[in-house]
Amino acid sequence: MTIYVGNLSYQATTEDLTEVFTDYGKVKRVQLPTDRETGRMRGFAFVDMEDDAQEDASISALDGAEWMGRALKVNKAKPREERSGGSGGDGGGRRDRRY
After folding, report:
1. Which whole-number Å values give the CA distances from 67 to 6, 48, 50, 83, 89, in the listed order?
2. The whole model's pTM is what?
3. Strand ranges (DSSP E) for 8-99?
4. Is residue 44 part of a domain?
5. Rounded CA gap, 7 and 42, in Å?
6. How far is 51 from 28, CA to CA, in rounded Å?
7. Would residue 31 count as lying in a domain?
């Protein structure tokens, strides 16, 4: 299971998150996604811990907690939804074409 951590301060680092979650068990991995164009952090992270009990404990303790001036949103991450490719099936052009 992966934990989603939302409403993060843009100043939060991987080390900061590791330190906070270590209070609840062993942290295996922290991901801080960044915007492709700007390189800025996107305001959320994903945390993997050693076992489900540790993850559940951290979710219970940290969801809604204030950290770095923000109320954290912490829950089980949902599987990523697949995005459809393309632009709606009409090639991105006008729909009222006359041939």
Report:
1. 11, 19, 23, 32, 44
2. 0.78
3. 27-31, 44-49, 66-67, 70-71, 73-76
4. yes
5. 9
6. 10
7. yes
**Torsion angle of the four alpha carbons 47, 31, 7, 41, in this order, in degrees rounded to the nearest 10:** 170
Contact 6, 71 (CB under 8 A): no
Range of the domain at 24: 3-76
| Residue 37 and residue 44 in contact, taking contact as beta carbons nearer than 8 Å | no
Q: How confident is the model at residue 86 (pLDDT cuts 50, 70, 90)?
A: low
What token pair was written down for 65? 């907690």
Amino acid identity at 89: G
Residue type, 20: V
**Under DSSP, is residue 59 helix (H, G, I), strand (E, B) or coil?**
helix
Structure token digits, residue 15? 């080390």
Query: pLDDT for 6-37, tens place per residue?
Result: 999 999 999 999 999 999 999 999 999 999 99
